[in-house]
Structures are given as structure tokens and as C-alpha cells.
């Protein structure tokens, strides 16, 4: 029999990624990162289009000072959506698992204290995490979903953009400022809430985070 034709390079790349994740899991490690939807890790994020409408925007000023902290994550202030309180968490220089270079990672967090969740309650959320491009006014990122519960209040890390891509881009990093955002699409609580949550359309909440070497100064406006 003739040998089978070679696999396309993209398929081989995805197989290598899956094999690396399987090896990592077999060694007892927990994979809490999301694999980019592309053939390589050096790609810019995908554009979300003009219909993307974030409910929360997080403007981080003096981002270079945050980078000096390395892989230490930083949380935003709480914001309200779908009757719950949430926050964003950015890791400016994250390397883990199968990633070959540092990247900027973002995740969504749920404030359990605002929910008074019982141990057997879970919150399923669908959302879009994004980074803003100052050059064309568009957001770039990806859609995700996660099951939050009282012992796990942070979603998996979303690989937004390679760090080297961010640093050389005047669009994503303009005037040493990065803007991240989240659009929460749907929230379900199990067991179901007694009363349905009515979501009213409103202007997004905007938080400015000013980075200083000796601490953070935040300012919120809506």
C-alpha cells in the first residue's frame, strides 16, 4: 500500500499542541490556559467586529510599570452585570504549559461574596474577553464560557496577544496605555434562581488604573 499523504502543517501543529497538553495532564498538572485558535502562538488576536459591545472597559495606564512586575496578576475593581459582581484579571507576562513565549493573558472573575452562593451552586457564564486597538477603534479577542462555583471563582486564562506583539504595536499599546474589556453574553445559575434577572442596557463601566511603582491609583466612571 502507498504511504498516506503528509498532514498539512496546521494540523501537525494542532496535534503537537494536543499531545503536549495530554502529556502535561498525565503528569498530574492542571491546564488552566486556553489554546489560541491558530497555527502558532505568535499571531495577533482575531478582530471581534463593530458589534462587540463590552459592558466593562479597563484602561491600564503606564503599562510598562506593570510589566516590571512580571507574571504577577492584577485585578480590576468590581463591576455589576447580570445581577452579579465581576472583575477582570490581567497577567501581563504569562508563560505556562505549551506556550513558547510570554503572552498577555486575561480572565474573568466572579465575586462570591456578592452572591452568597451555597457550596452546590454554580454560575455558568458566556462572555467575550478583548483588548482594544487604538489605531482602528476595534476590539480583538475571543469568546469563552466557564462554570464558576464557590471554590473556583476565576475563569481559565485567555491568551489575548503575545507580549512581543503588544510591545511593538502602536495600536494595542498607545501612550503606554492598554485597554481591556469584557462583554458578558449570558449567565445561568444552577440550581436556578427563584427570580429571573432582568438585564437593562446601559453605558459600559469604565475604570482607569494608573500604575505607580509604589502602588495603584484607580478611578471609576460610567
TrEMBL record:
CDD domains in the cross-refs: MATH
Annotated MATH domain residues: 53-184
The organism's place on the tree of life at top rank: Eukaryota
InterPro entries according to UniProt: MATH/TRAF_dom, TRAF-like
Region (Disordered): 1-48
SUPFAM superfamilies: TRAF domain-like
Protein name, entry field: MATH domain-containing protein
Source organism phylogeny: Eukaryota, Viridiplantae, Streptophyta, Embryophyta, Tracheophyta
Amino acid at each position: 500500500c502507498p504511504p498516506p499523504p503528509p498532514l498539512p502543517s496546521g494540523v501537525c501543529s494542532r496535534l503537537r499542541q494536543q499531545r503536549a497538553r495530554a502529556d502535561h495532564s498525565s503528569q498530574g498538572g492542571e491546564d488552566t490556559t486556553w489554546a489560541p485558535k491558530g497555527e502558532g502562538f505568535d499571531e495577533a488576536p482575531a478582530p471581534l467586529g463593530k458589534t462587540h459591545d463590552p459592558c466593562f472597559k479597563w484602561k491600564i495606564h503606564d503599562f510598562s510599570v506593570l510589566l516590571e512586575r512580571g507574571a504577577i496578576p492584577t485585578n480590576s475593581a468590581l463591576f455589576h452585570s447580570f445581577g452579579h459582581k465581576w472583575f477582570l484579571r490581567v497577567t501581563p507576562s504569562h508563560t505556562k504549559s505549551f506556550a513558547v513565549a510570554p503572552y498577555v493573558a486575561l480572565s474573568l472573575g466572579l465575586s462570591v461574596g456578592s452572591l452568597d452562593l451555597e457550596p452546590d451552586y454554580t454560575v455558568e457564564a458566556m462572555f467575550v474577553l478583548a483588548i482594544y486597538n487604538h489605531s482602528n477603534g476595534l476590539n480583538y479577542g475571543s469568546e469563552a464560557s466557564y462554570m464558576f462555583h464557590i471554590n473556583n471563582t476565576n475563569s481559565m486564562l485567555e491568551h489575548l496577544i503575545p507580549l512581543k506583539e503588544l510591545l511593538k504595536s502602536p495600536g494595542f499599546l498607545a501612550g503606554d496605555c492598554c485597554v481591556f474589556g469584557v462583554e458578558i453574553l449570558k449567565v445561568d445559575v444552577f440550581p436556578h434562581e427563584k427570580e429571573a434577572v432582568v438585564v437593562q442596557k446601559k453605558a459600559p463601566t469604565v475604570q482607569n488604573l494608573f500604575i505607580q511603582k509604589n502602588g495603584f491609583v484607580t478611578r471609576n466612571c460610567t
